[in-house]
């Protein structure tokens, strides 16, 4: 897999993109994008948690919008809405094609909504395991690999419950708003 070509293709589509060989390097790259004191939120991303980025952000000098701190479903929904006003939104993608197209499925829609519009900047950690050859392969990987694992993680009886909303992002009209850190290790689902 030619990671330099993937990075170049992402940049051609208006995404800021960098390669990190390891999860640890990816975390440092993400933190370098976020000045101390910035407001930060995140979606339900195994990649963000598994990499150690979430722990670093929670222990750092950031203004957190943490939906998991909610004491009621209403408060959780309100925090998910407030995430749209964050300086940074942390996430991943279910699949990225070698030519630079991004793909996500989502149960509630808050994650894909934040990616497409809202927070000032989006930082996505994408493990090498999420790269697929072509745009035509994106949905298949999301449905056959990511959805079943996420449904199991969330204890859903039907993996299709996680597949309420599909978003394919082919270009960023706000150049550099979406920052993709391609990680040379497997990360997330």
SSE map:
Layout: H1 3-12, E1 16-20, H2 23-33, E2 39-42, H3 46-51, H4 53-58, E3 63-65, H5 73-82, E4 88-91, E5 95-97, E6 102-106, H6 110-116, E7 121-127, E8 131-132, H7 138-153, E9 165-169, E10 178-183
Parallel strand pairs: 1-10, 2-3, 2-4, 4-7, 5-8, 7-10
Antiparallel strand pairs: 5-6, 6-9
Describe the overall structure.
With 189 residues, the protein is of the alpha/beta class. It has seven helices and ten strands. It has helices at residues 3-12, 23-33, 46-51, 53-58, 73-82, 110-116, 138-153; strands at 16-20, 39-42, 63-65, 88-91, 95-97, 102-106, 121-127, 131-132, 165-169, 178-183. The chain is globular. The two termini are 19 Å apart.
Keywords:
189 residues; alpha/beta; four-stranded mixed beta sheet; single chain
Produce a short descriptive summary.
With 189 residues, the chain is of the alpha/beta class.
Strand order across the largest sheet: 1-10-7-4-2-3
Query: How far apart, in Å, are the first and last alpha carbons?
Result: 19 Å
Shape: globular
Rounded mean pLDDT is 93
Number of helices: 7
Portion of residues in helices? 25-40%
Radius of gyration from the alpha-carbon trace, in angstroms: 15 Å
The biggest sheet, with number of strands, parallel, antiparallel or mixed sense and barrel status, is:
6 strands, parallel
SSE order in H/E notation? Answer: HEHEHHEHEEEHEEHEE
**DSSP strand content:** 15-25%
Total beta strands: 10
Low-confidence stretches: none
From the helix content, strand content and strand pairing, which structural class follows? Answer: alpha/beta
Describe the oligomeric state of these chains in a short phrase. single chain
